[in-house]
Amino acid sequence: MMNPLRTITGVILVGMLASVTRAENSTRISEELNADYSYAGKATVNGTGVKVDEHSADVKFVVSSQVTRDLLLRVGAEWQRFSFGVPAGVPVPSTLQQVSAVIGCDYQAGSQWIVRAELQPGIYSDFADVTGTDVDAPFILAGVYLANPDLQWMFGLRVDARSQYPVMPAVGVRWKFSDAWTLNFMLPKPRLEYDLNDRVQLYVGAGLAGGTYRVGDRFGTDNGLAKLDHQIVDYQEIRIGAGCTWKITPTIQLEAEAGTLAYRDFNFFKADIHERSHGALYGQLACHAHF
């Protein structure tokens, strides 16, 4: 059965471009911090009858340095963790986790194009028995075309040699079509946004999350399916919800969101095994800061 996320997984990179556009008088050193936590209620895993809930968290910190007028270097780190409340004997990982560096740059090519290249080397696994085989280095190459102040187009590629789909194309758009309304189709969080006032924004949209991880040497054996030992799993989920963003200061904002976990898939593609679930409610809190 074809994975329904095949054509959109790679578009996750587009959301990283939201911070690319900047004024020409930017400071030489800047910092950005993004952190979120969410909980999704229990959803039945197809074929097992087992209900699994989820805690997830993501923290990313990046320092940017203006090397020249057109070149910005970016260095930082990211930690992301998915924790699943799954009983023993079910072939679903209890933890999928990423600890990685962020190494990249933004380059302004003329007045209308900005290009980003970013490498994310690190450990992507269930952290059951970490070895060199848990190391991965996804790579992102993307560009933003600034058509005008209200319209920007985004294009790119995400490369991850370990994934079932190692090269994924991406496309996105941000269109402010009125004073209060913006179509912000930049994944992983495509949204329709409404500015209630200068400090509060309401939105409806979707969210994509996931990654490619290696499970432990005995993961399959311990859960009754030995062929899953030391396998690669592509984890993907889609959420649909609504939320509110509050700009506490010009550089700090808080966000609250709730909705439904529409789709979740643990894809052990080399073993041709999918463990899927859907239909759980979720809530999420996030903080974004730029200095």
| Large-scale geometry | globular
Structural class: mainly beta
Q: If strands are numbered along the chain, what order do they take across the biggest sheet? A: 1-2-3-4-5-8-9-10-11-12-13-14-15-17
Q: H/E element string?
A: EEEEEEEEEEEEEHEEEE
Q: What is the annotated CATH architecture?
A: Beta Barrel
Low-confidence stretches: 1-26
Number of domains as seen in the coordinates: 1
How many beta strands in the DSSP annotation? 17
Distance between the termini: 46 Å
What is the alpha-carbon Rg in Å?
19 Å
Q: Which percent band covers the strand fraction?
A: over 45%
Kindly state the mean pLDDT as a whole number? 90
CATH fold assignment: Outer membrane phospholipase (ompla), Chain C
> Given the structure, what is the number of helices?
1
Largest sheet: 14 strands, antiparallel, barrel
- Helical fraction: under 10%
CATH class: Mainly Beta
Spell out the key features of this protein:
1 helix; 291 residues; disordered N terminus; Outer membrane phospholipase (ompla), Chain C; globular; 61% strand; 17 strands; mainly beta
How would you characterize the overall build of this protein?
The protein has 291 residues and is mainly beta. It has a single domain (9-290), classed as Outer membrane phospholipase (ompla), Chain C. Helix content is 1%, strand content 61%. It has a 14-stranded antiparallel barrel with strand order 1-2-3-4-5-8-9-10-11-12-13-14-15-17.
